[in-house]
Write a structure and sequence with these properties.
The protein contains 12 helices and 12 strands. The chain has 399 residues and is mostly helical.
Length: 399
């Protein structure tokens, strides 16, 4: 019994001794790895960026080394040199009551192309124009008749001075109109081909009929430079185009087509009894009632001959592109005009002629005539026969 107890005690002692020996060796290994005065390394925290302190000199140096990025300039809403509606609105602001007739360089279109308007009112001076963007004003005072008017020496000098001020000097230094104005080609009769022109004429004539009720345009007396054959060719060109296109559109009557050809359409008015004709480019407005034959109730007092015919050319303002255009600046070194350049100038000067040439550029039918009764007819076996399907053209309506 005693020998067994002794053996168990000896085994337990040896086990404890081995464990202590292993612990001692482990401690010795750690001590030799980190040194006598070192401890196990801990994971490092991420380094923080050191804050830099800027000095004025450093800021200037950095700014000079960086590329210069300028902010985009803010364009005023009133500055739109490519907008035709905005240009027409500025032209419409000029009235004879507040702006007297002037040479072409000072006319309403020339001023409007440069950003000027003529705002009339009780507190506005006559002959004063104002920029729509910088709101600077300029008095364009005409010379007196004693000085020869605009045709005199003083008038020509004033015209040149006013033109220079309107172009740049009268604007603010930062005004965008001073740098770029509207192109002169913006104010012209725009023709985009024969088909487009026919559609435009039909639309304008149909709209005029709708706004006037149709009866007024059927009875209006017109004065125009078209001959009977030219008038027949205009209506025929419209008919042929609509037929070839297969459009189910009724051909407007000749009076409405003539008005549309010369740039006239009906304006929307509050009174249906007083329809108004207006030009789409010079913004002139004319009452139709004074150009209509008298009603039967007044026929005993007046006769149809007393109603004045509406002149589709002279009723335009003199600067309207349908009858004229802004002339190019004349120079002493300009070459002599050639027949081709004269023809081009004529077409540019008369917008209605350019329209007429576009419509009737095809060879005319030698057999087309206007019957005395007012209806289009084509000779058959040497005799004229009325065609009820053709629109009527009364010679009494065209003077």
């Amino acid at each position: 019994m005693e020998s067994g107890s002794a053996m168990e005690g000896s085994a337990s002692f040896e086990h404890l001794t081995k464990r202590k020996l292993q612990d001692a060796l482990s401690s010795l290994d750690q001590a030799t790895q980190y040194g006598p005065h070192q401890s196990p390394k801990k994971p490092r925290a991420p380094r923080r960026e050191r804050e830099t302190v800027s000095t004025p000199a450093l800021v200037q140096l950095l700014a000079a080394s960086r590329p210069l990025v300028r902010p985009a300039p803010v364009v005023p809403a009133s500055y739109d040199p490519t907008s035709l509606p905005a240009l027409l609105a500025r032209i419409a602001s000029f009235r004879l009551s507040s702006y007297s007739p002037k040479p072409a360089a000072l006319a309403p279109p020339a001023c409007a192309l440069l950003g000027w308007t003529n705002e009339s009112g009780p507190n506005r001076e006559r002959e004063r124009v104002e920029c729509v963007t910088c709101h600077r004003g300029l008095l364009v005072t005409p010379p007196t008749q004693k000085d020869g008017g605009w045709a005199g020496q003083l008038g020509k000098r004033l015209e040149a001075e006013y033109a220079a001020q309107l172009s740049k000097d009268a604007h603010e230094d930062a005004c965008p109109w001073r740098m770029r104005a509207c192109a002169r080609a913006l104010y012209r009769c725009k023709i985009e081909g024969r088909g487009k022109l026919v559609e435009e004429l039909v639309q304008a004539a149909s709209e005029a009929q709708r706004k006037t009720g149709g009866a007024a345009l059927a009875d209006i007396r017109l004065k125009h430079p078209l001959g009977d054959d030219e008038l027949a060719n205009v209506v025929e060109a419209v008919q042929d185009y609509l037929k070839a296109k297969g459009a189910a559109v009724e051909v407007p009557p000749p009076p409405a087509l003539v008005l549309a050809l010369f740039g006239w359409t009906a304006a929307a008015t509050s009174s249906a009894t007083s329809p108004v004709l207006t030009c789409t480019l010079c913004t002139r407005e004319v009452l139709i009632t004074s150009h209509l034959p008298p009603s039967p109730s007044t026929s005993t007092i007046t006769t149809p001959s007393t109603s004045a015919a509406f002149d589709v050319v002279s009723q335009h303002q003199h600067f309207c592109p349908f009858v004229d255009s802004l002339p190019a600046p004349s120079t002493s070194s300009s070459p002599a005009p050639t027949p081709a350049s004269s023809s081009q100038a004529l077409r540019k000067r008369n917008g209605w002629q350019a329209r007429l040439d576009t419509l009737t550029k095809r060879p005319r039918r030698a057999s087309s005539v206007v019957a005395p009764g007012g209806q289009f007819s084509w000779p058959s076996d040497g005799r004229a026969s009325a065609d009820p399907n053709k629109p009527a053209v009364s010679s009494d309506l065209f003077c």
